[in-house]
């Protein structure tokens, strides 16, 4: 459907593409990857005709429609959400407006201008899909997390992210033969992303996408095209397949280059040794010609190396880090939470998931203290220092400082070398570190704010979509940093790879209700699917057991019997739970003792008098190591039993509806 032939494109003396070609066929699923600045968006511009190649051609098959979703926000007028989503063609919009105007005139008793012209308008309207277009648009908008009451809202009242979702909806309603998507997941919450991912799996046309979401690429693409040093390199399979193939290709190239260089060195050693000797001169000349006849293998280009570094660590907090008790919160008449309870403990890495508008960001802001609780209590634990990272956390940056100066402005002791390494991993490379903050883009400011919070991390870190504006190497750098992080993390993200890499506990937020899943994202998916299936079966069983009228001759269950059954179930649960709870309480007491002794020993080591007694410091250090080992062992046992206790409570809640 689309053929790119031998194109070359340069900007400001830098060649982005040199004699590259690409073929896109019907139903292809292609992921376009490469570092920022490699030319991904420029290639899109060449395909769309917004830019012309310096050399070569871009040929589109006749009558093939190309649809494009840009990365950044698109223009907004006075149209509503549904009007934009159904604006699939200028003629369709014009016809629909004309029919609405005729309907208005008829309602007012003006029947002029009807007849044949109205019949033609209706026929043309049906040719475009008629009322089916609006029905399809509403389905897609709902999948992208729009609520029905939002369909008739003017787009100019909505944020840029929602505007981009409306444009995406219009694109899916249009259903072009080639769908071009530039970072389509940036503006989606997790639930909308999963719906969109499933939708694209069934999409009838070709899809060409730029994305830094590797999980999204792994689910969808069958081909990866890498832009690298001016070339387009095509790989079969998804993103993980591409990584394996690229590594193998690089190793083969390196081995072939090394072998050839060794052979050239061997021949040149002979030439250098014998070219001055009359008896060997002819042989030396022959060796030189042998080198000249070689088809030289180009030196391998330096691959992007994974950057390894350590971030400063926060002070250790108490076991209970934060608690919300009986919290109510509302925006005007809209109640978000009523009697909500939430608690996090030291070391937990909690991801908040749920549909858009369920209250995830509100919960994160309540935890951070960005918005005060309207009713109930907000308690921070012992020695807890909270830090909140939002997508728009730029107000604390000094606009007159350079990137490097701003990053170095931290209470932690950090060297310029280590800070420059960390900045480089977050895309501030070379002279970028000397840019003034005021000239940075919004995305660059967000990345700098992320570096600053990681250089001086609180022991309770609350993060809202931290991977936005990051490319894959930077996401890996963030995963590396948070994997080292020893504090407590609560975050929201739509990046499934990031969630799986970091999250160890899931809280599902839906219509003000919090459901805890003491495991990672895969565990949450399994449990929630099982819970949904059980609920459906239970609903069917209840419906089957509850006819409108009692069956004749069959006695109903008496209320007294039902109460006796529930009392027996509670007694069984109590016995099972009691032993576990006693073990948990005993372990908590041990943890408190070990933590107290750890603090005492640390204090003794900080006392100068300890070192005046021969061997005393060594003895204290040895005991301190033993206490730390025991503390880790007991903490692991406590976590295991705590999980068992939570699962027992959850299972009994399911059984008796408690």
> What Rg, in angstroms, do the CA atoms define?
32 Å
Q: Any idea of the CATH topology of the domain at 320-520?
A: Rossmann fold
From the 3D coordinates, which CATH architecture of the domain at 320-520 would you assign? 3-Layer(aba) Sandwich
> What would you call the structural class?
alpha/beta
Instruction: Give a quick account of the main beta sheet: strands, pairing sense, barrel closure.
Output: 6 strands, mixed
Task: Enumerate how many helices there are, as a single number.
Answer: 19
- The CATH first-level class of the domain at 320-520 comes to Alpha Beta
Report strand order across the widest sheet. Answer: 5-6-7-3-8-9
Report helical residue fraction: 40-55%
* Average predicted confidence as pLDDT: 81
Strand content: 15-25%
The low-confidence runs, each spanning 5 or more residues with pLDDT under 50, are: 540-559
Give the CATH H-level superfamily of the domain at 320-520: P-loop containing nucleotide triphosphate hydrolases
N-end to C-end Cα span = 59 Å
Oligomer category = single chain
Shape: flat
Structure description:
- The chain has 658 residues and is an alpha/beta fold.
- Among the domains are: 243-293; 320-520, P-loop containing nucleotide triphosphate hydrolases (Rossmann fold, 3-Layer(aba) Sandwich); 560-656, Helix Hairpins (Orthogonal Bundle), CATH 1.10.287.
- It is 48% helix and 18% strand.
- It has 19 helices and 18 strands.
- The chain has helices at 40-48, 81-85, 90-107, 116-127, 131-143, 160-174, 190-201, 214-220, 239-274, 281-293, 360-368, 403-408, 416-425, 442-455, 472-484, 496-502, 521-545, 559-606, 616-656; strands spanning 2-11, 14-24, 29-33, 55-60, 66-69, 178-182, 206-210, 223-228, 231-236, 320-331, 334-345, 349-353, 375-380, 386-389, 460-464, 488-492, 505-510, 513-517.
- The strands form 4 sheets. The protein has a 6-stranded mixed beta sheet with strand order 5-6-7-3-8-9, with helices on both faces. The protein has a 6-stranded mixed beta sheet with strand order 14-15-16-12-17-18, with helices on both faces.
- The protein starts with a strand and ends with a helix.
- Mean pLDDT is 81; it is low at 540-559.
